Amino acid sequence: MALTAQENDDLTRVGPGTPCGIMMRRYWHPVGFTAELKGKPVRRKLLGEDLVLFRDEKGQLGLIGARCPHRGTSLHLGYIEDGGLRCCYHGWLFDVSGRCLEQPTEPAEANFKDKVRQPSYKVEELAGVIFAYLGPEPAPLLPRYDVLVREDGVRSLQGRIASCNYLQMVENTVDQHHFKWLHRTPNTKKWTDPVLTSEYFDYGIRDTFARSGGGERYQTLSYFIMPTMNKTGYHVPESHPCGMAANHPGYEALRWRVPADDTHTMHFTVYFAPVVDGKPTGTIPPDSGAKGVVETTPGQYRYDEATGYLARGDQDRAAQESQGEICDRTIEHLGVSDKGVIMLRKLYKDSMDAIAAGKDPIGTIRDPAKNRIVEIAPGEFKLS
Description:
The structure is a single chain. This protein is an alpha+beta fold. It folds into two domains: 28-133, Rieske [2Fe-2S] iron-sulphur domain (Rieske Iron-sulfur Protein); 146-383, Naphthalene 1,2-dioxygenase Alpha Subunit, Chain A, domain 1. It contains seven helices and 19 strands. The longest helix is centred in the last third of the chain and has 18 residues, at 339-356.
């Protein structure tokens, strides 16, 4: 059944005070990379809010409102000095907590600076990723997912912007029937009998995708993790009859589709490969954390000359951006194969209802004993 216009708005609008925006603010989200902070502030948009991310001279991280409360100049143009971030326009200085330290053009005896406060948010670093929490206190724990805290392997980081609503990207993670068509190779035409099974687990949805090819049957196990993540890994090689262009043999990938605003999404990925006998089990993509969150151009997508299909790195983005800035779900015709998408939307609705009832949304963690390491293991299995 298609959604109503109001239901679609409730799931896609992420600004302050919206049902989805309220829910998203109860979780930690990636907002940048440690390596991109090189002595200058970085402008970022998160859940519809214009923010500036910076590290002060003492090494403390700050995430504060982007607009200087004096005349509205963006603080990302400012300078890190004298214990904080100084606006380039008239020199107002703010620390990582949003406190105004100086107003050089105002009389010192007026204490006007003590009456001004810039919005500021909690930030934490883990595995080279900077996470932000924009919700009410007390904040839940920042989840220590296995690929972020394991010390027995190598990891790399990537980030980019997609020009569409986050939900189009998130729904993709529980819609594994797209594998055969969007991520196809010349071998995937040999697939038969695809079966997708979706079920809830403690942190979201567990998906198993089975298919046959070359006289064998394989099953891919992957996870959607609230509120915007998915975990995949250890797929069969692309050259195998059951392989796909989205495979990554020998390593795992944890991805976030973070709403920047209603029509742009930050796509963060952490790749992790265990080291066995001194060698990584797979060749992970190169680390580009120092580049930050890379801009992309909607409508510009690469094609693989050898196959004539969309190139691997652009396949998902092309499909999702082509649905429009915010997909109109009032005109959908969902079928049996869309069970995972329906389950995902219910998961969001249940989380919104939980918050309205004064409870935590699904997948938040407050018990330190449950947060030593959060193990979620995807995989590829040959079925008997």
